[in-house]
Write a structure and sequence with these properties.
Layout lengths: L18 H15 L3 H5 L2 H8 L20 E6 L3 E5 L5 E2 L5 H12 L1 H5 L14 H6 L10 H8 L7 H16 L4 E2 L1 H8 L4 H12 L6 H12 L1 E3 L1 H12 L7 H14 L5 H7 L4 E3 L4 E6 L3 E6 L10 H14 L8
Antiparallel strand pairs: 1-2, 1-8, 3-5, 4-5, 6-7, 7-8
Helix pairs in contact: 3-15, 4-13, 7-10, 7-11, 8-11, 8-12, 10-11, 13-14
Length: about 325
Amino acid sequence: MISDRTLPSYSIMKSNHGWESRHVLLNAHDRLNGITEAHLKQWLNATQVQARFGKLPTYIPHLAQVQPDLLAITIQTDSSSVEFGDAAKPLVLMSLIKPFLLLFLLARVGRESIFSKVGMEPSDQPFHSIAQLSSDRGRPRNPMINSGAIFLASLLPGNTSASRCESLRYWLNKSAGCDLTLDKQMLASVESLGNETNRSIANLLKRAGYIDDIDLVIETYNQICCLSGTVVDLARLGLLLALPHLTISSQDQHIVNSLMMTCGLYESSSQYAMRIGLPIKSGVSGGLIAIVPKAGAIAIYSPAIDEIGNSVGGLFWLEQLVHAHRLSLFQTD
């Protein structure tokens, strides 16, 4: 629950582009604020059915042991929060950390340091594709796939993987008012695998001159992916991208949201840009974060994923919610 934590101060900024623009923004905010637990329950049974079409990822032993029928959702705005399901159940962030890693580094090292080495192009290959990185001569397509995020991990401040992970964790907790912790059991499970694919990616990045110390970068990447929280924490992180923030540039928010829209669901990104119409990021742990700009964030946890790595039940639940409450950025009525 969130009652014992202080939410950072957010303010809804009015548009200067005329009455109609202000009206649309206020409607999005009001519609999100108006969603109740009863609204969320409407799709519970259907979501449970859809989730059965997904599978737990077997390539990370600890993730393969998670209860597959877990379901949780939190909707967070500047002034309210509604939770439903197993909202107190922790989930490891995995790739959900990627947009927030990018957000942190945009503020710390700047856009030129990042996008001189990482592209902004969507990928039609799996998120851990070695073939694509090789054909691109070691230049990652975008920061939402493993190669891009591994490079970004090399830019974190600190001399050790632990200090680098802590610098990101501390900033996120302080900025968002959340309570992320390092899941050491999950980290041990990840490290037990040898990380051959990510090491191959790191080798290509080193050959291209993008990183120096492969071991340090892989250790850092593993640790930040094993940061853990609840859907409440995840929704609070989402507010860093949804609402004006005293220490975060609106241009940086725009960059991250745009990349989530075009790249956040890997090969499925364009499909869900049309079907849902919000910036979304997934993780193989079954988590989803969706941003409703200038309104709030929706965080969902449903562990069973599809072959691409996206939560099956989570995307279904989110799509029903967005359609019923007209939350898409492309809504015209």
